[in-house]
Amino acid sequence: MAARNNKIGFVLAGLLLSILMASMDNTIVATAMGDIVGKLGGLDKFVWVTSAYMVAEMAGMPIFGKLSDMYGRKKFFVFGIIVFMLGSALCGTATSIVELTMYRAIQGIGAGALVPIAFTIMFDVVAPESRGKLGGLFGAVFGLSSVFGPLLGAYITEYATWEWVFYINLPLGLIAFLFIAFFYKESHQHQSQQIDWLGAVTLIGAVVCLIFALELGGKTYAWDSAQILGLFGGFVVLALIFLYAETKAKEPIISFGMFRKRVYWSSNVIAMFSGAAFITASVYIPIFIQGVLGGKATNSGLVLLPMMLGSVVTASMGGVLMTKTKYRNIMIPTLALLVVGLGLLTTLDEGSSLWTIRVYMVMIGLGVGASFSVLSNAAMNAFEPQRRGAASSTLNFLRSLGMTMGITIFGIVQSQVFTRKMTDSMGGAAGEAGATAGAPTGGLPAGMDLTDPHALLSPELRQGIPPQVLESITHALSSSIVQLFAWAVIPAALALIASFFMGNEKMVVGEEQHEYTAGH
């Protein structure tokens, strides 16, 4: 028995390391992007470094989750680790922003297998009475790593080089690989089934079309251009084909029948909307600290530490409480904190203190933490082992979809507001500075793009901007980010509303037989 417990301990350690890597890489480049763009160039393409990872991860999740139900979890999980490590190694060798984007997509494919299958393996290998506590631990690590990414990225770029943002995954991935390869012995309760290839292809195509349309619209191409309208049209057509294919497939990638369970569909809705709200704060608070308050990358990363600690607290508490009370009773008060925290972020301005921001971030962390532990368990607990991979992967897919859409759509809002305010204010400020400096550019550093907030993340660049111009730019940036937070309140509120529909479900312990876990 002791030997078996030791094996499970190694397995859980491998799973936690995998979650740490995959979820951390969603956000680790946020505070490192200034340094990366400075070395590789491609300021106009920097957003793709994050989007490529998230889109590839998101598209792979439901596919790998379903395949793990059909053919076993171990082979696809190990495949995910290997691909993720390969992508990480390639990222460190990138010589252009385009190369880095391609390699990040490879990373994302690996992550698409790691996150959903890790939660499913945990649910499989531990006894039912331990799932709440361990679910809290897994949720805490997921939340911690999502927030820890920008902090770690800031320190690595300041004290090492940006390449180590990716190379750090290699030793972690190797340890996770060894633990899973040698200590995870899965049962053979899987059966081969027909693969839903049409569903897989149309799902990936629809996601790619939508994200490309949102990313390129209003920047590279006009919103009413043939290219953008074609991408939106492609999304609609492929999405409709996907929905039809899923109703006809014997084993669909996403089974709509699973959504008949009240606790399942509500958990998925909460994951999607809370993910959109949470990632917005994680990405744009560091930009606010650096671009508006003029802080260093390490300061912008450190301000996320309170949110990280808050999320760990409620993720752990949620894991313990879900065996004692209804899922709804945990999610309603925590999501209410998320709404209030985001609402308070809309009061920030150039004069806000770091301590004020830290307090608000604690509230956001406390508000989102429980969703990392409670929702995955709520989704999987509703189904038998042979469907848990699909249940977990669909929830994580929708959470990633929410995060991707949140960054993309709210990023568009922020960019539009920033550009408009710059147009309104720079006429006077830049003109005065230009008259003083005797230069048509207002004395700005050569090649600086005022329409992009990341141009302000470098303290060296800020020193070269005339004071009047810098004041106008930081005010425009502050206003645009605050408006972004106001929009982010909407998905947080929708997540809160959905939590009222979770019903009276809670994690039931003791009813499930242990024959599934006995084989591990």
Topology overview:
Layout: H1 2-24, H2 33-40, H3 47-71, H4 73-91, H5 97-125, H6 131-159, H7 164-167, H8 169-183, H9 197-216, H10 226-248, H11 262-291, H12 297-302, H13 305-321, H14 327-345, H15 354-381, H16 385-437, H17 459-463, H18 467-499, H19 515-518
Helix pairs in contact: 1-5, 1-6, 1-8, 3-4, 3-5, 3-9, 3-16, 4-5, 4-8, 5-16, 6-13, 6-15, 9-10, 11-15, 11-16, 11-18, 13-15, 14-15, 14-18, 15-16, 16-18
Quick structural overview:
The chain is mainly alpha-helical and 520 residues long. The chain has helices at residues 2-24, 33-40, 47-71, 73-91, 97-125, 131-159, 164-167, 169-183, 197-216, 226-248, 262-291, 297-302, 305-321, 327-345, 354-381, 385-437, 459-463, 467-499, 515-518.
Number of strand segments: 0
CATH names the topology of the largest domain as Growth Hormone, Chain: A
The total count of helices amounts to: 19
- What's the SSE pattern? HHHHHHHHHHHHHHHHHHH
Number of domains: 2
Largest sheet: none
- Would you tell me the overall average pLDDT? 79
Class by SSE composition: mainly alpha
DSSP helix fraction: over 70%
The stretches of 5 or more residues where confidence is low (pLDDT under 50) are 428-443, 511-520
Fourth CATH level, the homologous superfamily of the largest domain? MFS general substrate transporter like domains
Overall shape: globular
Strand content: under 5%
Radius of gyration: 23 Å
Quaternary structure annotation: single chain
In angstroms, what separates the terminal alpha carbons? 12 Å
